[in-house]
Amino acid sequence: MTPLFPAVREAAPHTALRFGERALTYAELAGAAAPLADRIRTAGRVAVWATPTLETAVGVVAALLAGVPAVPVNPRTGGRELAHIVADSAPAAVLAAPDAELPAELAALPRTDVTGTPPATGTGATGPVELPPEPDGEATALIIYTSGTTGPPKGVVLPRRALAHTLDGLADTWRWTERDVLVHALPLFHVHGLVLGVLGPLRRGGAVHHLGRFGTEAVAAELAGDGTMFFGVPTMYHRLAEAVGDDPALAAALSGARLLVSGSAALPLSDHQRLTDATGQRIVERYGMTETLMNTSVRVDGDSPTGSVGVPMPGVELRLVDESGADTVPADGESVGEIQVRGANLFTEYLNRPDATREAFADGGWFRTGDMATRDAHGAVRIVGRKATDLIKSGGYKIGAGEIENVLLEHPQVAEVAVTGEPDPDLGERVVAWVVPADTGSPPEPEALADHVAAQLAPHKRPRTVRFRDELPRNDMGKVLKRALRA
Fold first, then answer.
1. pTM of the entire structure?
2. Which of 57, 140, 301, 320 is the most buried (most CB within 10 A)?
């Protein structure tokens, strides 16, 4: 296997990481990571206190260079969940910035401080350093814990092979090169922010500029400088869409970007349109999971329709199956099936959960994603929602919550919306819309919203119940927590 980070091993002289005003070249990153890798090389696993800092990036790189599995820990994780993660993954130590205050669940572990700076003098200060041999491709790179919406979080064991496969596939799909400078402000404890947002640039030999905290002015400043790409979640793009019409500097900066990517949840069509109208840019969407890394993406040289997540990535097989598990769902852009995938991008197992690992796979090595989608004749995939929460069976129809949400967001009196199903004695399930009004003092008439959906889609997709909320519950990535709504 080729080195995961060739430019680190070559100690290249150009910038690799920048967090605020702090930056490291590849040579300095190698100098900072090498002694840390040597200190932890005999550890079975290490936890990483994953704040959005330079130290987190250095800590993860050091673990990967040492061939030691890293367990990124969300600093906002509650005590009970954190105790489960520590007990389940059994890290030998925790890596953290020297000034980080750790919760009790981690404070009991041996601590290794990450300085984020290379040695001031001596080997590694200005030139190549000796790094450990490159581990095997099947060796565990990361153990990332799922959100735990249906029980305690599961540790997803990701091999180095999966990281390399996904990042190289994205290089092909997005024409990602060492000349690109990625701008983002995502957390660093999950696939989007850490694997794509930090390890992706390092794999290519390019640079990442992390903003620390998202802000439209900060995004504009970075993209107006040497930033070429921006990765964000729909919440960020919604704020950009709201600001861009009145901010010529932001519009110019976004217009000049080589690539704008939205992920982790569906980007509403209304935000797509506002950003395209103001900047001429198309926002690229892609689809992945912790267990699979990236499965599909809109290609920069393709023409997948807006609202789709594009076509399967290089080396990824994808199929849609019906309720019986048969691969017979037609590619007509309308018929819905569950996405199943297989390829070198897949995880190895759920840590300590052989039962869950077995249940996650169908015959032939196909991973059951639990996501429902349609696929058109050109292979473009459109996600309609999660099988457990977003597929509504009403009156004999299978209805995807996502398409109703997109239509409701086009209504001028709707600021935010989530759609779920509820038991109905006549229909089986009825469509329920949870709406945050644009003007909380003057919410729209429920019947007007139902008629709006019926006119745009079909009568059987109209909300039978509308409930108004001041806000929608969301997780750290901006995804609406529909189970919390229904509870």
1. 0.84
2. 57
Q: Per DSSP, what are the bridge partners of residue 423?
A: 429
Provide the sign of the torsion angle of the four alpha carbons 341, 344, 346, 352, taken in this order.
positive
The CATH number given to whatever domain includes residue 410 is: 3.30.300.30
Domain end call among 204, 233, 259: 204
Question: In the prediction, which pLDDT does 1 show?
Answer: 63
**According to DSSP H, which parts of 334-481 are helical?**
354-360, 401-409, 446-456
Q: What are phi and psi of 248, to 5 degrees?
A: -60, -35
Neighbouring CB atoms inside 10 A of 15's CB total 18
Gap between the Cα atoms of 432 and 420, Å rounded: 5
Measured CA to CA, the distance from residue 416 to residue 433 in angstroms comes to 10
Quick check: is 109 in a domain? Answer: yes
Distance CA(308)–CA(331), nearest Å, equals 14
3-state secondary structure of 250: helix
Helical H segments across 76-128, by residue range = 79-89, 104-107
**Angle at alpha carbon of residue 120, lines to 114 and 122, rounded to 5°:** 110
Backbone angles phi, psi at 33, to 5 degrees: -80, -30
When divided into structural domains, the chain yields a total of 2
- Its domain, for residue 435, covers 391-486
DSSP 480: B
Condensed to tens digits (0 to 9), the pLDDT of residues 33-72 reads: 999 999 999 999 999 999 999 999 999 999 999 999 999 9
Count Cα atoms within 13 angstroms, Cβ side, for 93: 19
Q: Which residue has the tokens 């901010």?
A: 247
Q: What are phi and psi of 129, to 5 degrees?
A: -125, 160
Query: Is residue 469 in a domain?
Result: yes
Q: Is the CA virtual torsion 149, 449, 263, 230 positive or negative?
A: negative
Which residues are registered as beta bridge partners of 93? 46
Q: Calculate the alpha carbon distances from 284 to 35, 103, 251, 467, 479 in Å.
A: 39, 38, 17, 32, 18
CATH code, domain carrying 24: 3.40.50.12780
Alpha-carbon distance values, 40 to 2, 48, 86, 286 (Å): 23, 12, 18, 35
For 205-236, give the secondary structure using H, E and C.
CCEEEECCCCCHHHHHHHHHCCCCEEEECHHH
- Residues 75, 294, 362: CA angle, nearest 5 degrees: 105
176 domain-assigned = yes
Q: Could you say which of 204, 232, 250 is where a domain stops?
A: 204
Task: Give the integer Cα–Cα distance in Å for 254 and 274.
Answer: 12
Q: What pLDDT score does 121 carry?
A: 47
Nearest-angstrom CA–CA distance, 295 and 299: 12
Q: Is residue 236 part of a domain?
A: no
Question: So what's the pLDDT on residue 125?
Answer: 47
> Which element (helix H / strand E) includes 39?
helix 26-40
